[in-house]
Each structure stands twice: as structure tokens, then as C-alpha cells.
Design goal:
Mean pLDDT: 94
Shape: globular
Number of strands: 66
Largest sheet: 6 strands, mixed
Amino acid sequence: MKKVIFLISLLYSFISLSQEKNFQSVVFQNIGPTIMSGRVVDLAVNNQNPSEFYAAYASGGLWYTNNNGISFEPVMDTAPTQNIGCVAVDWNSGLILVGTGEVNSSRSSYAGIGVLKSTDKGKNWTNIGLPDSHHISKIWINPTDNNEIVVGVLGHLYSKNEERGVFKTTNGGKSWTKTLYINDETGIVDISFAPNNPKIMFASAWERERKANNFKGNGIHSGIYKSEDAGTTWTKINANSGFPSNIGIGRIGLTSFNENIAYAIVDNQNLRPNASNEKPKDANAALFEVEVIGAEIYKTTDFGKTWKKTNDTFIDDAFYSYGYYFADITVDESNENRLYISAVPLLFSNDGGISFESISKDNVHADHHVCWVNPKNSNHIINGNDGGVNITFDNGKHWVKCNNQAVGQFYSVNVDDKENYEVYGGLQDNGVWAGPNNYEPSVEWLQDGKYPYEFLSGGDGMQVQIDSRTNNLVYTGYQFGNYTKINRISGERNYITPQADKKEVPYRFNWQTPILLSSHNQDVVYFAGQYVFRSMNQGKNWEKISTDLTNGKAEGNVPFGTITSIAESKFKFGKLIVGTDDGNVYVTKDSGENWVKISSSLPQNLWVSRVRFSTFSTNRIYITLNGYRNDNFTTYAYVSEDLGVNWKLLTANLNQNAANVILEDSENENILYLGTDTGLYISLDKGINWQDFSIGIPSVAVHDLVIQKREKDLIVATHGRSLYKVNVANIQQINEKTIANGVALFPIKNIPFSKNWGNKRFAWGTENTPNVSIWYYIKELSNTGLTIKNKDGIVVFNRPAKSEKGMLKVDFDLSIDEKTKMAIEKKDGKIKINQSGNKKYYLPAGKYTIELENNGKKEAQFLEIIEKNQMR
């Protein structure tokens, strides 16, 4: 019943959002970066023409190339999600099936909404079922009847559910049959089928359970199942087959050479002989200090009846200790002894898995997830990893990086205060970068060899703070609180993370540890673990200014009981608010002398994803709570006007997935921006009503927001499609007066005149064409007229607009017809307008009046075209 209520609520929220569309003309610009890419989870390659393939990104959608990866086009931007687990293509008919929801089971593996289908190369998508699957691992399409489809479903990541196992349809998804089900905690993580006999299939079951504080990636129900009738019935490989069957078996990857020969890669979580079983004290070290057996390879040559381990020695450094993120194996269809393991490095075996070598060479990112080998040319490999797509034609000796698309998975974003300001951000497994705010994704930078974005630090890039006094001192770092102060001019780097005394229990730091420079004195740095730390000297020395503000250490193998967000009031130094991963919110008015818990009346045990102080009201605070780690996708955003004594839910009429960030506008206190796991939303009335605010951005998670106050640019950090920018100067002017008046025309910046308008610099160049965007706001649906006149009252532009409402714009290229040109010249004999190379006439320098008329109301602004020598 609870699920039914939630679905009704979700449907209602979609309907209410669709009623208000006031920002359809406000289009976001993608500002990259590109070359660091994001996580590729699957490939679908046309074996008859390998230059044509699809690349599926974990949270960045599906991309298509037909020129061997030189360029890609997005094909899922109209789909309701960009989260992908797998993709399958019937190349004969063009049918594309996408299994949504990533299967790597990491902390940033987003849930999906079922199986999506397209028959027009991604222009339109239809959901054909399995909406509660959350994470889909594999899809098989019968090459002779594409209505017969087999789907492997891993199931929910953070909770139990029954829509997991193997599902089959014979009518193209109109109805589904669950043909294999183990239990509500065990799903299917891989399916392989024999190329010469696709009725023969193997499916790998994976028992796993993830919680915010613990991840169990193995269990007794993990194992291999076999089907002889194209997935209609299944039989488990028994414990006497030689394939391991015990509680330590984790994720299993499969690949079939033919109906008799298949391989499995196993994440064996049993301890190695003589392992100490002592947990490393440092969370980051725990990822790399290997105590478990890790990767093992097993082979069958008799149709799965018996299996034999191929490797006699440990395959060290393949998984380290976290095979749940990998376990993909590929066999060369032309040679059963050639194997590829997609692990931390990309490993190759030429002897059937007895020995391996790394073929991760220059230009190849670590952490591999999929590998395709050309059945007609064994040296031709396409590889997908955490850094994007790589291609080799000599079996890994040399690689080409195919990253021209903006699919970065950002955790954070910030801006400096330079005249031409830069943006900074931390990305999943791709470090921290800084670059120009006006970057347009392209490969022109290859001409001079310098990419516009600068790499600042590695690892999983996290939060960034910039000292605005010089704009050259940057504080940033990687996962679990490893932060550095970087001088971008001198190159000096100083590790600043607070260290526990030898007698103390090690500090607990969140995956994305919060750091903050005080706006009152930027020598003052705040840092947070389970305590709040403060440095008065740029991170050289630290003092604790709080007790443990969490509910204490939680047992498990994932650091938990940590502070996730921190903010300081602009009205008073030392007035701080913090939120924790276990649901606590605390505030102090006196630099930590006294802390007050203010979250007791809020929903409990949720991740506090953001805390904010208002910059307009001294006791106003905003917070967002996130239930993603409980498989709770309700949108929680709250405001308090009295420092947390009372709270008001802002999202009662908005249910658009878990909330990550809320931001109060820098100029207009009525305007709020909200980033969730499905997009960006805006409110013009302090959160009473919300509207979609994401034209140009596909349905992707928004993790962070920042406004460059001087330029009035909103920068959006997405976890899958890099960074976006939009100017909000006009939106900031929508206030009570504007709404009451019902119409507004917004100011326009002066435009420098050019005698080269309409001309080309050289024969093969492009025309130099001007454009001015005239923005206006209409409250109600009504007809509108827009007129531009020169100083003599001559109409140079006149356009009636159709009945619309909201923020609207008209683009004017400053060209006029010959009749208007002659009228201007006749009225003012000093003016001479020449015809340009494109046969158009353009307005001369001068001051023009723009008039907007709507329902009897008139608004006016000026447009000035200024000679360059008059520009200031």
C-alpha cells in the first residue's frame, strides 16, 4: 500500500510540475570538461561494422558513434533517466534496449526505472517493464526474433525486493515471466550465451547487501545457473562441479566461447592463508590492503558440468579488496585461450587464464568495466572504464582515448572571483579540475596541446574552496578527507588534513569530506570528520571546536558517523551549522563553545546532504535530507526561520527523487534552486511552488550548485553530464512587484558596432553575425507585441509573439530590410548603411527603444549599439 501511495504522489508531482512551465526558453550551456569523462559500464558494437557502436555510461546516458569513436552523439537525452546498467542492440532492425540502473554497486550507482526501448535510434523511448528492478545487468535479444528477450536483474541496492532474477518475454515486453528467482537479496549480475548456440546460457547470481555503513558483497547464494532453452528454465551448478560454493563467494562475471566452453571470474572474499584479518585503521588504506583471495578464474569445457580453476597463483592487484566494482571477463571469439579481465588494470591472458599481463598503457584510465574484442581481428579492442572509452588495434600496445563528450561525474563545484572567472570541481575517480567558465566542448585545444581545464589533484575529486583574495590559493583533495592546500602560482602543496594523536581513535571522515573557508577571514578554515575542526592559519594547525556530533561510530566496513555538510553565517563569525550522515543537524552561535541539536523534529536516520544559512535573514537556514542509501527517493527540503526551532517542509508538492543540494539566490531571497537525483528545480516563492529548471540538461543527478555573484551565473554540477551554466540576472528581477504587474522587460547590455557584420574574414570562413536576446516575463497566457524604434521613431523591428507565459526571449540579428534602411538614411543624412556580404543591412550605431506591449500594459528598455571607441 505504501508503494501505491508513493506512486500516486509521484504521478501528482509530475502533473503539478507540468502545469507550470515558465522557463522553457532558459537553456543551459554545457561548459565541459570532457577529456576526463565518466564511468562506462557497457558497449554494444556492430560486429559487421565495428566503427559503429554505442557506449553506455553509468549516469551519463547512452552515446552513439559511427566513426570509430572520433565523435559521439547522445541518444538518451529524451529518456526519463540517464542511469544505465547495460545496453543491447539488434543491428538488423535497429532495436535498442537499455537496462537502467548501474550494477557496479558503488556508493554512486544510481537506480533505474526498468527496461527502455527505442526503435528510432534513440529519438523516442518507451518503458517496457520491470520498473522495480532498480539495477539491470544484462539483456539478450534473440537474433532471429527480437520479441524474445532475456533480462538479468540484480535488484535493489539498499533494500530487499522480489523483482530480481532472470526475466523473459516473448512478445517484446508486453508481458514478462520470472524464470529464475533465488531470494529477495540475491540477483543476477551477468548472463552469457554461446555464440554458436544462444539457447545455451549461464547466469551468475550475486548475494549482496549495501547499507550506508556496511557493504556485504558475498554470500552462500552466489553461484552459477545454466539454461538449455534460452533462459526459460534454469539449473544451478552444483557444489560438486569444482566451482566454489561458500559464504565467501562474491560477484561473478561470465563469458562463453561456445556451447561447451565458458569462463567465470569470481570475486572470492574468503581470506588468504595467513591473513591477519586486522582491519586497516585508515578507510582509504582498507581499499588497497589486500586480505582476501580476490580474483579467480574458472573454466568449463563440458557444458558447465565441471569447472577447474585456471590460475595457480593469486591475481594480485586485479581487484585489490573490492571486486564488487569489477568482475567482467571477455573471451576472444576466435581463440579460447585469449582472455581479458576488466579490473583495476586491464589484464590479458594468452594461455587460458593461467597467467596474465597488464595492457593498461599510456592514455588508459584505471578501473575497467567492459571489453569488446573484434571477432575478425583479435588485436582490435574497445574498452570502457572509469575514464571513458579507449580503442586499440595492437592488443593494448597503443591506445586511442575517445573522450569528446561531457560526461563527467561531478561531486562538487565552486567558482573564483577573477575577472574571467574559473570553475572548479571534483569528479568521481577523475580528480579535481579548474577551467574557464565559457568553455565550449571541442577538440580545438589539440592544436596548441593545452587543454583549457587544468588538472589540480587526483583520486576521487571532492570539495573545493578558493581564497578569493588572490584566487590562486585552492583547498581541495580526494576521498575520505585527504585534502591539500595548493598554490597555483608557485605550485607549492601542503597536506592539511587534521591528524589524530597517537592516543586517540582515528578520525572518521566522510567519502566527501566538507571543507569551508570563513567568509569573515579566509585564513580561517573549517574541516569536519565526526568533529568540527578549525584552523586559524590556513590549515597549518587545527583545533577541535565540537564534540562528536554524530550518533557515534557504526560497525561496518564503510566509514559512517561523519559530518557531511558545514556552513557559516555571513552575519556573524563562528555561527555555524553542520549536518551528518546519520541525520543530525547542529548549530552553534559562539564558534563551537555550545552546540544545539536542531533535527529532532525532522525525519530521522537520513543523510543530511546540505546545510545552508540564508544571506538575507540571520536566523534562516535551509537543509536537504537524502534517503538514497535507504532506497527512499522522497524529496526532503526544509527551511527554518528561527535557527531550527521550527521547520517547514518545502517539497510537499514536489517529489522528484532524493535531494542533494538547495541554494538560495544571491540577489533575490524568494528564489530557491534545488538539485535532486533526477534534475534541477526552481521556486520563485521561497519553496511554495516548484518548476522544472533544466532545459538543455537531461534527467541526471545534480550534486552541487553555486552562483558567481558578480556575473550572476548559476553553475550546475551534474553526476554524469559534467558542468552547466546559465545566467540568472533576469530571473533575479522577478519579484512580488513583477508578478503583480504581470509583465516585465529586462535590460540589455550595450553592443559594440562592427562594420564586419554579415561578412566573412576569408572565403571559406563563417559569417560574422550579431545577435541580441531580448528577455521579458509574462505572468499569464496572452498575446504580446515587441517593437524596436530608433531615435527618430522609425520602427526597425516589430514582432507579435504567440500566446505564452513565463520567461521568454526574442532573438534579433540586428538586420533590417531595404525599406527601413532607406527610411533611416532619409531621416538622417549623416548615416550611410552599406549592404554586407550576406546581402543584409545592419543597424548603425545609435540608441534604440524597445517596447513591449501586453494586455494594455507597456514596458520599455533601451538598446545601444556603440562604436568601439566609445566602449568603456
